[in-house]
Amino acid sequence: MSIIVFGSINIDLAAKTPRLPQPGETIIGSNFFTAGGGKGANQAVAAARLGTFTHIIGRVGNDQFAEELLRSLQSYGLSTENVLIDKSTHSGVAIIAVDETGQNNIIVIPGANNNVGEADIERLKKVLPEATSLLLQLEIPLEFVLKAAKFAREVGVRVILDPAPAVADLPLELYPLIDIITPNEVEASQLVGFGVNDTETAIVAAKQLQQRGVENVIVKLGDRGAVAVTADETLFVPAFAVRAIDTVAAGDAFNGGLAAALDGGRSLWEAVVWGCAAGALCATKVGAQVAMCDRATLDKFLQQHNLDKTAVETAPTQTMSASAD
After folding, report:
1. Which of 91, 70, 106, 53 shows the shortest CA–CA distance to 251?
2. Which positions are catalytic?
3. Over the stretch 20-71, which tens digit does the pLDDT of each residue have?
4. What is the pTM of this model?
5. Helix, strand, or coil here: 157?
6. Residue 8: closest CA among 77, 86, 102, 63
């Protein structure tokens, strides 16, 4: 059993600042570091850290970052044999500012991620039939996200889509290929065309997405938790109370935790709890991949925060969660 992530691989150039700058403003930061990133790679690391054998398929560029990125991914136990070094361009880069409250803004320069294409689909086809889940995001060309989802459906592999970065015009033919879609509030708003900012609007949005053909919808509500809508039930998972330091990859941690739980045979409810816990723990550390928790840490955290299955009508607790990025 394994998870396959087909998506972006970036180098993160991150700065810690007292607050996020206004347009045209220069401020002095307090720290700078580089680290592996990209939504695809982040989700792959999150799943691998929780003990699931994980492949990543994507591209890095012809630059000094490529070896660093591959070495870092391998250090987390990931299979990178299907990562192509694209000699025609640079690796993907994300320029990140994180303020003292943990909020962030990010500029992504896709580089090699923009060149993901047919050759990558062919590599995917060789390994996908043995997988339990295929994780997709939108930091590679949408055409090939669609092709990957089609092939996964053909071979009976679960498709989990994180529709980020947010877009308003996902192809309608993509929705029926998705088993689980996991937008945060911003992404859900973009997809449905109205504001999603609480559990009620999240449920309405989720049901609209189901009408487009998605089987299960999970809306990540940040410091309110997450709403999961299936064909049979609507569930609310309250937020875990943590002191958030950096929320950069919390949404990626959520998806990695969700997929790892499902790979282990857990129910969707349990998987959403795993996702929320993984996201919350990620937010307590600075960075993306380096902030992903291991299985022992997740198990201990869940034992300390035992959640009963909660109906969505329950008022959400106003605590800091990291279920949204």
Report:
1. 106
2. 252
3. 999 999 999 998 988 899 999 999 999 999 999 999 999 999 999 999 999 9
4. 0.90
5. coil
6. 86
